[in-house]
Amino acid sequence: MDRARIDTGDEVDSYCRQCKLERVHNVVALVDGEVAKVICKMCGSRHKYNPIDPEPNGSAPKAVGSGGATKKKKPSGARRAASAKSLESQWEAAMAEKDPANSRTYSMDGSFKKDEVIEHKNFGQGLVIQVDAAGKMQVLFKDGTKRLICAPVQ
Ligand SMILES: [Zn+2]
């Protein structure tokens, strides 16, 4: 479809900065056959022609295939973040009632009690939420609950 040659006075769609909307404008000036200035039919403001859909040029992907190692994939990222956040806040709420200064360093042969704060070299500070007689306990860490070995309850 050949586009009819635009002339002054023709109607064109342009973004109007006054109306902050796409509006019908009349062409008031042409430069080299292209619309240069328009006047808004709604508010009468004159301004540069602002086409809504700029021609999609230069949209070629940037530098793909240089063997880059910084590809970031985020499958179901929002969900993971949400659950991680709730775990963290659960941990923060639990730790808020405790005195971290009283934490004991975790060791496999140590005996621990429920509600005790421990310090684990990998997981950080955690709160003992359950101790099994068989020598296992559940500890709430910042990134979730872990099962750790401990001395059997005597
Ligand atoms: Zn306007």
Task: Walk me through the structure.
A hairpin with a 4-residue loop joins β1 and β2 (about 20-30). Among the domains are: about 10-50; about 85-150, no CATH class. The N and C termini lie far apart (about 90 Å). The chain has a 5-stranded mixed beta sheet. Strands 1-2-3-4 form a 4-stranded antiparallel beta sheet, with no helix packed on it. The chain has 1 helix and 9 strands, in the order ββββαβββββ. It has one helix spanning about 75-95, and strands at about 10-15, 20-30, 35-40, 45-50, 105, 115-120, 125-130, 135-140, 145-150. The chain is mainly beta and about 150 residues long. The chain binds zinc ion (ZN). Zinc ion (ZN) binds next to loops. Zinc ion binds next to loops.
How would you concisely characterize the structure shown here?
The chain is mostly beta strands. Among the domains are: 11-48; 85-149, no CATH class.
Can you lay out the helices and strands and say which pair or pack?
Blueprint: E1 11-16, E2 21-31, E3 34-40, E4 46-48, H1 77-96, E5 104-105, E6 117-120, E7 124-132, E8 136-141, E9 144-149
Parallel strand pairs: 5-6
Antiparallel strand pairs: 1-2, 2-3, 3-4, 6-7, 7-8, 8-9
This protein binds zinc ion.
Zinc ion binds at residues 16, 18-19, 23, 40, 42-43, 45.
